[in-house]
Write a structure and sequence with these properties.
Blueprint: H1 2-15, E1 25-37, E2 40-48, E3 51-61, E4 64-75, E5 78-96, E6 103-104, E7 107-123, E8 128-147, E9 150-170, E10 175-186, E11 190-194, E12 197-201, E13 204-216, E14 239-243, H2 253-269, E15 274-278, H3 286-306, E16 314-318, E17 339-343
Parallel strand pairs: 15-16
Antiparallel strand pairs: 1-4, 1-13, 2-3, 2-12, 3-5, 4-5, 5-6, 5-7, 7-8, 8-9, 9-10, 10-13, 11-12, 14-17, 15-17
């Protein structure tokens, strides 16, 4: 039971993991399905020696088929497309009103249409959307019928318009499956099969139910990369420590390296005041260590001047053993306490 639940949860998580079915950018689509034409009412006129003969007639058509292809561009839920279509329906019955019963009709209606559609995709769920739209253009209708007044074989372009409603399902980021319903109207079907024979018909009213697939020609635009992080300025080091050997005030190579770094920071900061404070450990008398700490500070000042620092910008003092970095008992040698602080 737990395994079935886990499997179901996995399927549902996959089903809702993809983006919405709205198509962005350039795309193409193809679809096909059934076509229905409403009963077509008409007024037939035959010119005779005795004057015009009028007959009202009704043509009924069988369920046919339809196919459509389109190319367009989608943006922010809107789609603008050019559509081409083909429909075919056979004539099943032809009725002369007020005159006789239905008779088996022979003939067909075939149509080629070219439409410009404006559609909007309304999001429903993560992968589903609803389409509503309108279109207008031309319809090239070819009507073939056999009537008791003679055969009809007429073709012409006429103005047409349509309404569209559909449901979309995003299969992938680039592919959408959909079903559509269309209502189309072709205006003023007037035919003239012969010089003395004319048919004044009403509009063709047509319905189509189709299923199809839409392909985006490019994936969704990649999100713009975040702006590069502004580099934070490296904090300027303002304190340096120079260490000394036991009972020594001369500078080691390591000490000289530290002093050069301090000089670089002083120049970067533009500081005009440098403090040099010497210290000593607790091995020795207080007075001796006081003097030693001053000698150490003087050694550092001399090295700073040697690196180009003005002597009048350097203050020197010695604290002896009064401010140890590491607390020790009297008389203990501690390397961390044998030092000079450079600060600015």
């Amino acid at each position: 039971m737990n395994t079935k639940r886990a499997l179901l949860a996995s399927i549902l998580s996959l089903a809702f993991a993809l983006p919405a079915a709205a198509t962005e950018g350039w795309y193409v689509s193809v679809e096909g399905g059934g076509s229905w034409v409403k009963e077509w009412e008409q007024l037939r006129t035959l010119q005779t020696y005795c004057g015009p003969d009028f007959k009202e007639a009704l043509a009924e058509f069988d369920t046919g088929w339809a196919a459509f292809g389109a190319g367009g561009f989608g943006i922010a839920g809107w789609r603008f497309e050019v559509e081409g279509g083909y429909r075919q329906n056979d004539l099943t019955d032809y009725v002369i009103k007020w005159w006789g019963p239905k008779v088996d009709g022979e003939g067909e209606v075939t149509e080629i249409s070219a439409m410009i559609n404006v559609l909007y995709d309304v999001p429903l769920f993560d992968r589903f959307s609803l389409t509503v739209g309108l279109g207008a253009g031309g319809d090239y209708a070819s009507v073939k019928m056999n009537t008791n007044w003679g055969p009809v074989d007429e073709s012409d372009w006429r103005f047409a318009y349509q309404g569209i409603a559909g449901l979309n399902y995003a299969l992938t980021e680039l592919t959408v499956l959909f079903v559509n319903y269309r209502f189309a109207n072709v205006r003023d079907i007037n035919l003239e099969p012969a010089a003395n024979y004319s048919i004044d018909g009403g509009d063709f009213e047509k319905h189509a139910a189709t299923a199809g697939v839409r392909f985006a020609l490019a994936g969704p635009a990649a999100a713009a990369p975040p702006p590069p992080a502004t580099p934070q300025p490296v904090p300027l080091e303002r304190e340096f420590i120079v260490f000394f050997g036991f009972n020594r005030s001369d500078l080691t190579a390591q000490a000289l390296g530290t002093i050069r770094k301090a000089v670089g920071s002083v120049r970067d900061s533009g500081s005009a005041a440098i403090r040099v404070v010497g210290h000593a450990d607790r091995a020795g008398s207080i007075s001796y260590n006081k003097a030693l700490s001053v000698r150490r500070a003087q050694s550092v000042k001399k090295a700073l001047i040697g690196e180009g620092v003005a002597g009048n910008s350097i203050s020197v003092s010695g604290r002896g053993e009064s401010e140890p970095a590491v607390q020790t008992a009297d008389g203990i040698r501690e390397p961390q306490n044998r030092r000079v602080h450079i600060s600015f």
